[in-house]
Amino acid sequence: MSDKMTETAAHLPEHGPIDENGREIILSVKNVDITFGKGEDAVRAVKNASFDIYKGETFSLVGESGSGKTTIGRAVIRVNPCAAGEIDYKGVRISGKIPHSLDREVIRNIQMIFQDPAASLNERATVDYIISEGLYNFHLYENEADRVQKVEKIVEEVGLLPEHMTRYPHEFSGGQRQRIGVARAMVMEPEFVIADEPISALDVSIRAQILNLMKKFQRERDVTYLFIAHDLSVVRFISDRIAVIYKGDIVEIAEAEELFNYPLHPYTKSLISAIPIPDPKLEKNKILFTYDPSVHDYSEEKPQMVNIGHNHFIYGNTKEIEKYKAIREKNVPLKPITILGMDGAQTEEEINKEREVARAKEDEALQAGIEEIKNAPVHDTGSIWYGIFSFLLPIVGLIAAVIFRKNNYIRNYKMCMKGAKVMLILIAVIILLFLIFLMIARFA
Fold first, then answer.
1. pLDDT at 370 over 60
2. pTM here?
């Protein structure tokens, strides 16, 4: 689909674009940046994220808390705006400003299952109304009897009873509330569902039931999932492809078994090594692989996402990509989980030596941090008086800000800059109003 069409399309097409392998691309995230805050306080939560999701698959986004998983999911449903890049659904751009008719189609076709089943449901509404709300908003029923029939059918499909329809969310367990959330999404008959850690708040015994329920809907309705999670053991069970995200950067994308057999990026290795082993003896002797971002040297060449073959994408510079390719071409599955005394692992003595070295490094880093705190400027308080002073004398305030910045008094610098900026803007407004007044008086 042409760029011109994606800019002006008012409705979604029946099918999305087809890639070179004949797969329909239902969602495409292209070089997306998502930023919160403005100016010096801005935080770049997602950096240059790019991936495609194919119709009928489960695409999982995995990473630790705060890595940007939910931020991307909320950008797809148009809650978080994109600072750069775009998001296309069936080849039509849905990020940024779009026509009202397209916005309604996006809401109708893309649904979300939330992480917290309690907070995502209206406590004052009955289950009947909660599930029916989307039907009411889009009038997806012929008459009242048809609406009731649709709600009863979906309630039965998610494993609840008809008498539950008149009850309120607080009368249900966590697993039952999540079933209500699934029903609310699926009653809209969406093509694409974002599942934001839908089982993380549930008991272990209930998790498999919810996952099986989602799989059932996928088989019966050809639903496509963006599954957001931090538990790789769950992700392996449900996913077709997996993307690993670290602090806003997507570092690896591959099919589920490919990723688990060949976890090439060090961060992916650390996530897999953290998966608990059911056997307590093995778990006790497991050697955790800890990711250290300092192993990457991106000072001379910036990293990029590269396909190294086998539909396996990885983030790195040229030197790293060549190393990852060489490892993958050996075609020998990697073992990110190492058990002490098994499979040629290190001896206990060697492990203890490594731990002592690691502790020494940690102590050294901690001491360096303490020294840094001690050496920090004592009077860098960011007092409001610096702001008031800079407001009254903006030029002097700007000079003070420069001096503070040079001597690493960052809080004082910011306060002086704020005060000076406010006064300068105020002066500019007064001058502008004065000029307008003169022009009015001249032509009066």
1. no
2. 0.74
